[in-house]
Amino acid sequence: MSDQKSAHEGSSRIGITLETFILEGMLGHPAATGTFTSILNQISFAAKLITSKVRRAGLVNVLGYTGSTNVQGEQVMKLDEEANAALLAVLGRRKHVAAVASEELDEIEVLTNDSRARYLVMMDPLDGSSNIDVNVSIGTIFGILKRQDPEVLVSANDFLKPGVELSAAGYIMYGSSTMVVLTTGKASGVHGFTYDPTCGEFFLSHENIKIPEKGSTYSINEGNHAKWPDEVKKWANWIKDDNKAEGRPYGGRYVGTLVADAHRTLLKGGIFAYPADKKSPEGKLRLLYEANPFAFIFEAAGGKASHGKGRILEIQPTKLHQRTPLILGSPRDVEAFEDFMTGKR
Ligand code: AHM
Ligand code: MG
To answer: Is-above-0.90 flag for pTM?
Structure first.
């Protein structure tokens, strides 16, 4: 109730729906055509569709929908394929998105050759897929890029732009609640919307998210310790050292779903790290649809996003499914990690 009250009393918009929020953003830009608003609305619609599939995921085996066909004799898709299909169908409907790059697809999917389609979407439709079967949070990640020249037929090269060029980025987390978090950059801030399944709407629940300057939690797959470079091992020992004055040791939290680990880090502060290691010399996570959207969000929330020695958002991509080391978090925590990587500590 207090949330509703503040919406009436002050300048807070807590409690307004995602649709109204997006529309108000558009009204602030009188020259806007509505295209961008429409894409964000379509993504929020896909979030509802995927939520309903995710919420029933645990029942699939129980209800005998296992194998490649369901009880109606229809082909059953894996949840990540379903999420991919739902997003492609929804984004293809209004002809505003020319093409999509997806973790699920080797090549880009061209949705339309109409030159009025001025945007490209990059996405990981269902991140954290190893957590589906154990009922742990999973998510969707997306980035939206404006096409440089809509008159030229769209190709994979159009996606190979540094993250600084993104028009918007966001993620959907299917956790204890479903949440959409999105930003169009520093000026507009980062905002979170929580889904109310009883009325099928997302409501603004986290207005203008700002990450703390420094946190007290670190998030990394400690099982990779033996494969890390020495600099990472040194940092990992340092963060666990006892030093009360400097707020160490940090607590450890690792879900193994980027969306969940990054979401917690964004709200509570601290650091998430998936560095390069002997098994994944380029890093494990994907630049275009995992690292860049989160880097865009973290920077817009006052945080930092690094590949260890510099900004994620400045990397010039050379391949669609390129990997990168990814360090996200509170500015002071990411700077400390970079100090270890560059030999300053
Ligand atoms: P996915 O996109 O196939 O789900 O893989 C990406 C996931 C991230 O969500 C998570 O941060 C990372 O892989 C976890 O990897 P690991 O199991 O090596 O710790
Ligand atoms: Mg992923």
So the answer is: yes
